[in-house]
Structures are given as C-alpha cells and as structure tokens.
Design brief:
It is built from eight helices and eight strands, in the order βαβαβαβαβαβαβαβα. It is an alpha/beta fold. An eight-stranded mixed beta sheet has the order 3-2-1-4-5-6-7-8, with helices on both faces. Strand 1 (about 5-10), helix 1 and strand 2 form a beta-alpha-beta unit. The mean pLDDT is about 95.
Length: about 180
Amino acid sequence: MAMHIALIGYGEVGSILAEDLRAQGLAVSAYDRKLGSPAGDLMRGHAARIGVTMAASHADAARGADLVISAVTASQTVAVTEAAAPGLHAGAYFLDFNSASPGAKIGAAGIVNVAGGRYVEGAVMTSVPPYRIQVPLLLGGPDAAALLPLINAIGFAGKLASEQLGVASATKMSRSVM
C-alpha cells in the first residue's frame, strides 16, 4: 500500500509509530515542537536512522500526507490541529491520538473539516509501548468507518466506537476512571 503518513509529535508514541510504519516501507514525515530544543537532536538522529523526513512545521509535515496522526499531549490537541490544518489536502485523514476531552476533539474536528480534511478521533485504550502499532484503538466520527480498514491494513488494531464524535474519547475517559 502506497501511503504517506505524517506524525505530529515525535516523542515516545510518535517514534514508535514511525518505526513500525517505516518497517513496512511507508513514507513518513514528522514534526515536533521540541525540534528546536536539545531533545531535537535525538529526534532528528532517530528519524535519520529509520528514514523519516523531519519537517520544519506542523503544516509542512502534513503537506502531501494521506493520513496525519497527531500524538501530542492533550493540552496541545486544538493548537496542533490549527497548526497542521493549512497543510492538509482535500480528503486527507487526520487521526487524533491525543487523550483530550470529547469537547476538544469536537473542536479539532471543526478545524480539520474547514480545511477539507476528514477528522477521526482515536482513543488509545492502553499504554502504547508494549503493543506498539497494535495498541487497542477506538475510532470515532463520521469518517471513522472509512479510515478503519486503511489503518488496520497497515498494522493498527482499531475498532469502530461510534460515528458520533466524542464517544470514543468519553469511553476512554470512563475506562481510565474505573
């Protein structure tokens, strides 16, 4: 499958996903706001070793991508979506891996939709490292059913939670409390 994937956030989760996606020969670009800090040297070194193209901005990473995966801290969900949206091409998927509230995910979806993209909320149901790309993942939103077979074909372990935005995130939040 020829697919270009952009990762926004190249910390623990982003770098694990990059490794697993590149192992399949998929084109991967990435951006992390920490590239300008001392951690940036480590990120660039890791990216160079596995063949990930590091971009100069959120939008540059998203430019030309069929799928953008946002894996940043919950507090950055909306800001990162705003920064990446100008790089989205019409019809590109934006998979939000962030542990944000349903309200933040609904707000982020509006930004992606205005830019012509297709927003899908992703609720990561456990810690990524032991599962890597196959971490249990609930998808939500009107475009979730269309994205599901595409991401599962490249190794994800997604399941459809709801066509309504916020349900997957609320499910994760409820499970975390329990």
